């Protein structure tokens, strides 16, 4: 026993750490650990005691809060019972007011529906008239389509007409005359007019503002062109085709020179003349494969035109003639403009009257919406009221204010709540 104690003392006295000159033994370390455990145990006991005290205090406060809540709930239930009685009376009053409001709204809506129905009837009548005009235009389009179909059938006969040398000039002349006659008014052109040098151009178009007239020639050398087409179909080597092209180029140069010499007369005719080509495909072929001929024609002040270009030129001349005519008739146009402005003034006055009617209808609807909004706001105020004994006594002491409808069918007493 003594030996064991001696061994334990030896173990406890054994140093385990050194800090500077201080040596710490195992026994000192165990003693410090035991002291720390004791402090922790004391802190735990104190914490448990405080927690128990806090729970007891919270339980007391909860019980007190429950008693106060029960008292408040009893008061709320009593106030709710009183509120239900008063709300039923208010609901009856609001029901009567709602019936009156519905009647007023119904009357105004009937009036507005009548006005809208009248407007819709006018719009429907206008729509029917527009549809009728549209059907007429569609009928015109159908007629134009039938004319196009018949024209397509007549195109088949074009080659036979152009192959005849005697009818070739007549065909080009007829097509040119049709384009000119369709685009210009009577008196704005002449056919086969004799000039001072004795030549007779196919067409002379009169220019406005005293300018010299424009000469149009329709004698296109179609035989040489038909020779090119025939050579292209028969000759595989291309020699005959090149010869036909040279002959066509030569005939074009001769015809352009003849137009420049016979029809371009200083002071009598315009300084530029038109050579009419009666086919769009021939015109395109000339511009694609015979560019030198086009350049020589420009230098000779001869413009080669196709049917579409001639039509466009005639439309430009027509616009110029119309502009000159409008300048001459400016005073008549001004008078028509004055009458047009008078009609516009009358139309503006009638539109403003119609706007007044629509504005009155819109004002009636706004008044209805304002009345409904006021009723809704008053209902919300009634729902937000808290009725108690003090407020009830004050309400009984104060005189009640009354509101009477304009129709005399509804009377409402209003009690102010002044908490």
Topology (SSEs and partners):
Blueprint: H1 2-13, E1 15-19, E2 22-25, H2 26-155, H3 158-163, H4 165-183, E3 189-191, E4 203-205, E5 214-217, H5 222-234, H6 239-263, E6 273-276, H7 280-289, H8 291-299, E7 302-305, H9 307-328, H10 330-384, H11 389-397, E8 401-404, E9 411-414
Parallel strand pairs: 5-6, 6-7
Antiparallel strand pairs: 1-2, 3-4, 4-5, 8-9
Helix pairs in contact: 2-10, 4-9, 5-6
Structural class: alpha/beta
Number-wise, the strands total 9
* Helix content class: over 70%
What order do the strands of the largest sheet run in, or round the barrel if closed?
A: 3-4-5-6-7
- Write the H/E string, N to C: HEEHHHEEEHHEHHEHHHEE
CATH class of one domain: Alpha Beta
The CATH architecture classification of one domain is 3-Layer(aba) Sandwich
Q: What is the CA–CA distance across the termini?
A: 93 Å
Mean pLDDT rating: 78
User: In one word, what is the shape?
Assistant: elongated
CATH topology of one domain: Trna Endonuclease, Chain: A, domain 1
Number of helices: 11
Biggest beta sheet summary: 5 strands, mixed
Radius of gyration: 57 Å
Question: What do you see in this structure?
Answer:
- With 419 residues, the protein is an alpha/beta fold.
- Among the domains are: 1-49, no CATH class; 164-337, Trna Endonuclease, Chain: A, domain 1, CATH 3.40.1350.
- It has helices at 2-13, 26-155, 158-163, 165-183, 222-234, 239-263, 280-289, 291-299, 307-328, 330-384, 389-397, and strands at 15-19, 22-25, 189-191, 203-205, 214-217, 273-276, 302-305, 401-404, 411-414.
- A five-stranded mixed sheet has the order 3-4-5-6-7.
- The radius of gyration is 57 Å and the shape is elongated.
- Residues 393-419 have low confidence and may be disordered.
């Amino acid at each position: 026993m003594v030996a064991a104690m001696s061994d334990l003392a030896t173990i406890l006295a054994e140093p385990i750490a050194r800090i500077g000159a201080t040596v710490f033994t195992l026994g000192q370390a165990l003693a410090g650990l035991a002291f720390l455990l004791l402090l922790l145990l004391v802190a735990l006991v104190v914490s448990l005691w405080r927690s128990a005290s806090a729970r007891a205090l919270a339980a007391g406060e909860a019980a007190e809060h429950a008693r106060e809540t029960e008292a408040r709930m009893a008061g709320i239930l009593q106030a709710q019972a009183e509120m239900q009685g008063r709300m039923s009376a208010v609901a009856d009053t609001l029901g009567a007011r709602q019936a009156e409001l519905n009647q007023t709204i119904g009357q105004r809506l009937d009036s507005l529906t009548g006005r809208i129905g009248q407007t819709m009837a006018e719009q429907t009548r206008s729509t029917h008239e527009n549809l009728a005009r549209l059907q007429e235009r569609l009928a015109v389009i159908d007629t134009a389509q039938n004319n196009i179909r018949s024209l397509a059938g007549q195109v088949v006969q074009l080659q036979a007409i152009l192959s005849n040398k005697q009818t070739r000039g007549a065909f080009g002349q007829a097509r040119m005359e049709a384009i000119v006659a369709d685009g210009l008014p009577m008196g704005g052109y002449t056919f086969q007019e004799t000039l001072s040098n004795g030549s007779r151009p196919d067409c002379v178009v009169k220019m406005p503002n005293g300018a010299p007239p424009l000469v149009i020639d329709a004698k296109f050398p179609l035989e040489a062109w038909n020779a090119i087409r025939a050579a292209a179909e028969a000759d595989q080597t291309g020699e005959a085709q090149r010869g036909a092209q040279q002959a066509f180029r030569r005939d074009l140069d001769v015809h352009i020179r003849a137009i420049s010499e016979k029809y371009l007369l200083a002071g009598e005719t315009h300084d530029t003349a038109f050579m009419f080509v009666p086919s769009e495909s021939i015109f395109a072929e000339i511009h694609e494969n015979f560019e030198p001929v086009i350049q020589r024609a420009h230098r000779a002040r001869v413009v080669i035109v196709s049917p579409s270009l001639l039509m466009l030129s005639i439309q430009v001349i027509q616009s110029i003639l119309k502009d000159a005519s409008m300048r001459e008739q400016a005073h008549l146009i001004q008078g028509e403009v004055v009458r047009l402005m008078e009609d516009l003034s009358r139309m503006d006055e009638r539109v403003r009257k119609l706007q007044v009617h629509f504005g009155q209808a819109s004002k009636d609807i706004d008044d209805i919406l304002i009345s409904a909004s006021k009723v809704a706001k008053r209902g919300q105020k009634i729902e937000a009221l808290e009725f108690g004994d003090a407020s009830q006594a004050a309400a009984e002491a104060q005189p009640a204010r009354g509101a009477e409808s304009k129709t005399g069918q509804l009377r409402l007493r209003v009690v102010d709540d002044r908490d």
